[in-house]
Amino acid sequence: MSADASSSAPGGRYSMPAIALHWLLAAAIVANLSLGVAMHDLPISPLRLRLFNWHKWAGITILALSALRLGWRLAHRPPADAPMPAWQRRAAHSVHRALYGLFFAVPLAGWAYSSAAGFPVVLFGVLALPDWVPVGEALANRLKLAHQLFAAALAGLIMLHVAAALKHHFIDRDGLLRRIGVRTQALRR
Length: 189
Fold this sequence. Notes:
189 residues; mainly alpha; Fumarate Reductase Cytochrome B subunit; two-stranded antiparallel sheet; 2 strands; 2% strand
């Protein structure tokens, strides 16, 4: 993107590492949420077990990427807020804080559920991660529900986040999407 286009983004642009982490994490989360929904009602089979392992591996990868993204965010100031009404700014900050919290809560609850159910997480089939909760059916059931509720909340907040971004682009036409690297010319077609 040219300097002219990036300088017209309200409040400036995020750094390239922040943009890359945003889109990488977004793709991983949407893919893993989709996988979680798709595998949920499958009958017990080798395919379902393979999908559960992929889901766990993706969840741990998302957890690591979330830690990296949070670390980057804490070490590097984001651009100034774009001009918008105060209520929208408060809503945006609240949604971002909730998203960050759920980036950690969803995979941690899933890992805890797997541990409580007696199915250890073996990352990529080679690295056994520690079980950090005791095995127990009642605990596993509570953690499974927590994982599902957190994932549903994350999916809902992602939809809200995307809807707000599209509102800024198509209704407000304020160039907000340029801050996070979207080439808006492609969206006009």
